[in-house]
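By convention, each integer encodes one residue's backbone shape. The lines below illustrate.
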Amino acid sequence: MSRQVVRSSKFRHVFGQGVKADQCYDDIRISQMTWDSNFCSVNPKFVAMLVDASGGGSFIVLPLTKTGRIDMSYPTVCGHTGPVLDIEFCPHNDNIIASSSEDCSVMIWEIPDGGLTTSLTDPVVKLEGHSKRVGILSWHPTAHNVLMSAGCDNVVILWNVARGEEVVRIDSAHPDMIYSACWNRDGSRILTSCKDKTLRVLDPRKGTVLMEKEKPHEGSRPVKAVFVSDGKILSTGFSRMSERQVALWDPNNFEEPLTLQELDTSSGVLLPFFDPDTGIVYLCGKGDSSIRYFEVTDEAPYVHFLSVYSSKETQKGIGYMPKRGLEVNKCEIARFYKLHERKCEPIVMTVPRKSDLFQEDLYPDTIGPEPSVEADDWFNGKEGTPIMISLKEGFAATTKAKEFKVHKTLLKTTSVSLGNQQENTGEVQSLRNDVKQLKEALEKLTNRVSVLESKQ
């Protein structure tokens, strides 16, 4: 009788690897703020990182291709009057990013395709409604222009970004500071963890608490939680003895965890990243030098340890690339952007395979960038299921027409927030044309000078 000793899984040999030094982003002064957010957001076009700034808060947005040493004078996004605490790119438009700050505001920015040429100080939209610093941002996964923000005033606000207005305000559900807030896969539920040691599942439109679990972890350090497959919830926290833990919960039976595992005694908060396509959850600790990853399945013990990526340098923050930004021909199933003291290092997670062909078992259809419902319809009760895309041919970017439409709906709000800026678009265009002509003239003169010098 044969006895299976090791659980079979195609992800058992997944390994992480840092890229070569010339593919890192060097000489960036990462923010020194003590805050438990990712400090980094990334999509197939850009990587954004919180940076140190005097007299306010700022973050830097780089095209993915701009690797190597970044000049000290590189333009930043610096419209906030207090330190920036969280940033997140819009999943439906790679050029739109939201930022939240200690100045109690949330701002929406539009990044031009080639990256910034001058520092950005005026946002496309400014959202004001929190009375204390805003530390958590999360875009709706399927509804267009819906953004959730959570602040230290214990309030969760859902914004219609295209109109620049607050639509839902959840101010009575949380008696203390909110540690984490996230959506489920189709955006029909919100999961929050709070300083009162309670996990809550909320109805986003009504703002009512549907389910709650007290003391998922006994310790008093922050708890982070995410939805995983089949509506289950994975949480990270601390035991009473300050040991780090990971637990899996079934919201229909919140009494006991499906599994609860103790990991180690480090003090950094574990940030969970769940990949619904592979069922792998990655745990990245602030201040750690490692990334652990587990496979979440339907069979006990439900959360199976796969491996750990270790390095010498500790991470101050981490960004997680969406699936459509990965290199499928290299069997890459995840890519993280790890923030060091003064640089950002991409880390690639790969399944070792001999074939260069597309591996269908590793890449099922994944969530694409198309929203399935508009903000107004969603707030009126219409659900949006994720629109899936295949990665077989490599993902092609969204069309210009779609992007322009998105920008236009966003820019409608400027009449609310930024006065008459919309009337100036013609002037801006003519100025851009002038700059272009001047650049061309300068290039001609430079060429002419170099020709004349070579003749001497």
